[in-house]
């Protein structure tokens, strides 16, 4: 391999913040494409895959995980500065992930509940997405992301075009695949009407309601869905729990969960 | 006897461990020719799962705790289901249990295939990663990808998704796959089985550092088969307890350098969980083909060399492929796919064998089935003390190596454990609950 080939390949870095590693694993799960993808780029940093570390700058940085410590804030700024493009992958990086449930609680109490020596723990009160701290060029949704969407983002980014990622809902995709509606047919609570698609409408396909792991769709009407869920017999507090999981920090889900988080509230 | 030169006093610091799941570093300090300090630093930030599970419905832990780990979500889902079902006094049917075991085989296949070929093997070739390894031995890397793909496919068919499966619920599954859907997996699994046998031979030919460690092995044991998704917990020293028993016995320390706890049996003894333990304690329950592969690879009934865990994993990979085929052949779709698990006040425990070792959960529910407290003890926090002990021995025996090589050997020593550092930071000190 000549040096000039190496230099001409775009440099890619994969970074991890607070997360489960599932989204970067999605790249390793592209079994048929993996060797082709890594052969087309130069991997400058991807701890889960390689010991190799090449200093920036980077053509594209993929960022998994949420910001939960003061160090994280510094690190993401440095990564942004060194990267021409920054793409976030997954719910943690987009909206703080499941660990954003701390945003509804007293994190000091959480630390005391979990750790014998809370004084050893350094953590921020909020778990936040990457875009709360630096400019993000593209956000790929999902808990976890869909590997085909990831491949589309990589291909598009490397060829200098905008990724083609649909903005409609799980509900629309579910209708498209001809799945019987779990909410209409069985009265099962489903977030499909307000959740961005990308998963393939997996949950209704196994007879369960969508639980919103791709986060809110564009202009999601969460209040209307909440009213319908309550009409079907779901308690207000359970409506709040439904909106408060893997995208608990996404504004549309957060607001709806707050509107319903006690039996007396809401409208 | 002369004193060692100052050159024998040094610090080897590997910042940012690669090819492991999560964020950690390691530090080895040598003074006067003796390894004085060995520390695994876990700086993966805490995510407080046990804290925010409080107040959630008893039906939620399978989905929520799956998010602790993207590589072993089924382990979390299974241990959570077992614990909640225990709290509610419910057992699943044999058919549901078989489907659960099948899904778990999928996770073992994908996780072991990833670790063997992508995360661990490159060390034995002096390669930075599997991409560089592919330059030396492309068929081996492709074989790893093929096996992994079959494991993921199995998880998709049974679980609905490979990472964070959507089809798992307390009491069983939302939907049972048909016989035809599972039948389509038979040929791919047979190919994966052949490939796994080749991989056992491949890894058996690696050059292993010579080291034997007298571990205290701890694993699940099931009367009928090589334990994966259920069983009692046994040890090489005669321990034999249920999930509640191990939860009561294991105490954890919180140390300053780490966001993970260090687990000890009875608050004192370090112990090992994972492939070496399962293999040593349940060797007799492996299949004839797995025995044959192990023997051909030079393994006896017990393996005490942590570097050879890669061979044991490959033998388990053979077993998991065979076991998946066996379950599919005997499969009867459970109808209904789940048993009802009404919430009630109670305490429940559940344990299963994640690919990297024992994982146990404990939940306390209130009258409405809401979670009052949760405890999750992942394999990597149970193994941290053994990891540090291995590091001390390996470093001490190899002080003649230059820093760079010694550092790499220490990294490899950590990777022997297939550690999941993200998992290890999600624990709860339960002094309040242990009473």
Instruction: Give Rg of chain B in angstroms.
Output: 21 Å
Structural class of chain A: alpha/beta
Question: How does the overall form of chain A come out from the CA principal axes?
Answer: globular
Cα-atom radius of gyration of chain A = 20 Å
Q: Let me know the average pLDDT of chain B.
A: 91
Residues in helix, % of chain A: 25-40%
The greatest interface between two protein chains, and residues involved on each side, is: A-B, 64 and 67 residues
- Indicate how many domains the architecture of chain B comprises: 1
Mean pLDDT of chain A: 91
Looking at this structure, what is the CATH superfamily of chain B?
Answer: Cytochrome-c3 Hydrogenase, chain B
Largest sheet of chain B: 3 strands, antiparallel
Taking pLDDT < 50 over at least 5 consecutive residues as the criterion, the unreliable ranges of chain A are 1-6
End-to-end span of chain B in angstroms? Answer: 53 Å
CATH architecture field of chain B = Orthogonal Bundle
Shape of chain B: globular
CATH T-level fold name of chain B: Cytochrome-c3 Hydrogenase, chain B
Count helical runs of chain A. Answer: 13
Q: Major β-sheet of chain A, in short?
A: 5 strands, parallel
Descriptive report:
The complex is a heterodimer of chains A (267) and B (435). Chain A is an alpha/beta fold and 267 residues long. Chain A folds into two domains: 3-158, 3-Layer(aba) Sandwich (Rossmann fold); 170-259, no CATH class. Chain A has helices at 3-8, 22-28, 34-40, 70-82, 91-95, 107-114, 147-158, 170-176, 182-186, 202-205, 222-231, 236-243, 251-259; strands at residues 11-16, 42-46, 58-64, 83-89, 138-140. A five-stranded parallel beta sheet of chain A has the order 2-1-3-4-5. In chain A, α4 links the parallel β3 (58-64) and β4 (83-89). The longest helix of chain A is centred in the N-terminal third of the chain and has 13 residues, at 70-82. The radius of gyration of chain A is 20 Å and the shape is globular. Chain A starts with a helix and ends in an 8-residue tail after the last helix. Chain B is α+β, with helices and mostly antiparallel strands and 435 residues long. Chain B has one domain (49-391): Cytochrome-c3 Hydrogenase, chain B, CATH 1.10.645. Chain B contains 16 helices and 13 strands. In chain B, the strands form five sheets. Chain B has a three-stranded antiparallel beta sheet, with helices on one face. A three-stranded antiparallel beta sheet of chain B has the order 6-7-8. In chain B, a hairpin with a 2-residue loop joins β2 (24-31) and β3. In chain B, α5 packs across α6 (138-159) and α13 runs antiparallel to α14. The termini of chain B are far apart. The chains are: A alpha/beta (267), B alpha+beta (435). At the A-B interface, α2, α3, α6 and α10 of A face α1, α5 and α6 of B.
